[in-house]
Design brief:
The chain has eleven helices and 14 strands. It has 326 residues and is of the alpha/beta class. It starts with 5 loop residues before the first helix and ends in a 5-residue tail after the last helix.
């Protein structure tokens, strides 16, 4: 995949993002445990939708390709996406009693609960027919999350999209986004992720996700480094220990921006969207990693994921006032 000038393609600014949009509800006020809640607030959720919001807030031109339920919650997600100026013309409604991804998420750190409902998930019903509606020559970059590889028909649809993206010579970016409850086994996830990863230009995941990719939690870093021989940029996130990026036969080690977190969710989506947003806004790879880290730090201090994604001036102001750890 290294024959593509992927940085130039990213700067053309026409992103196709594949994966789930969902609805998240949060016990209100922040700090309330779900079992004690009497009031909730509602926000757009779902990893790909969150990434699209993060990137759009940094000037990205994003079109989301997914499926949602043909009901009020599906329509709510569409309305929310529109409020963030995300193009939904490739979003399809699925009937057959499918349900949009739905999560109850606490704004707490201690004993945090995120309860996610994925029974007959609408986004996993995305099909090759949905991909056939896309002219990949109209896009400069494909971004997708690993959640949509978990089952059929979505899995085959995504690999079909990868084929089409390669034929159109546009870069492919994957956030591994492993959710164990959507897979039949870690071994299956390892095999499918590995096949997808080898077709990417940028691959991002955390230590557990690369552990799944390796089918051995002790060999995640080793596999990340090996994949860098085929993938232009591999970013291995280590939580509070920062990240290691493998790029151009070198390693870039970065820390994090320490903050007092309100919740643990949304950081990965913020990192991905803002890392790509950094590249879009003429930052180099190292600067873009810091951009992503700053965005992740901001998001965990606020309620929600999509609404917490920062604007460019917020990230830059945060970086002026806070230092990344070594």
């Amino acid at each position: 995949m290294k024959n593509i000038n992927f940085l130039a393609k990213i700067k053309e600014n026409n992103f196709l993002i594949i994966g789930r949009a969902g609805i998240d509800i949060y016990p209100d006020p922040p700090g309330t445990k779900t079992e004690n809640a009497t009031h909730f607030v509602t926000h757009l959720g779902g990893s790909s939708a969150n990434i699209a919001v993060a990137l759009t807030k940094l000037g990205g031109n994003c079109k989301l390709l997914t499926s949602v339920s043909d009901d009020a919650l599906g329509r709510l997600s569409i309305n929310q996406l529109h409020s963030y100026n995300i193009d939904t013309s490739l979003v399809t409604f699925k009937k057959e009693e499918s349900r949009i991804s739905f999560a109850v998420v606490e704004s707490t750190i201690k004993d945090h609960q995120s309860i996610i409902y994925r029974n007959k998930a609408s986004d996993l019903l995305m099909s090759k027919e949905d991909i056939d509606c896309v002219n990949f020559n109209n896009f400069s970059c494909l971004i997708f999350t690993g959640t949509c590889l978990a089952s059929e028909p979505s899995r085959s649809a995504v690999f079909y999209a990868i084929e089409k993206a390669k034929k159109s010579n546009i870069p492919i970016i994957l956030d591994i986004d492993y959710r164990p409850y959507t897979w039949t086994s870690p071994k299956e996830a390892s095999e499918v992720y590995m096949s997808a990863s080898k077709n990417c230009d940028i691959l991002i995941g955390n230590d557990d996700e690369f552990g799944i990719l390796a089918n051995d939690f002790n060999k995640g870093m080793k596999v990340a480094k090996e994949l860098s021989g085929e993938v232009s940029i591999v970013i291995y996130k280590k939580g509070e220990k920062g990240s290691v990026t493998f790029c151009d036969n070198k390693e870039i080690n970065k820390g994090i921006f320490p903050v007092k977190a309100l919740k643990p969710t949304g950081a990965g989506d913020a990192f991905m969207g803002s890392f790509i947003g950094g590249l879009l806004n003429n930052k180099n790879i190292e600067e873009s990693i810091e951009y992503g880290s700053a965005s992740a730090a901001i998001v965990v201090t606020k309620v929600g994921c999509s609404p917490a994604m920062p604007l460019q001036n917020e990230i830059e102001e945060f970086m002026k006032l806070n230092k990344i750890s070594n």
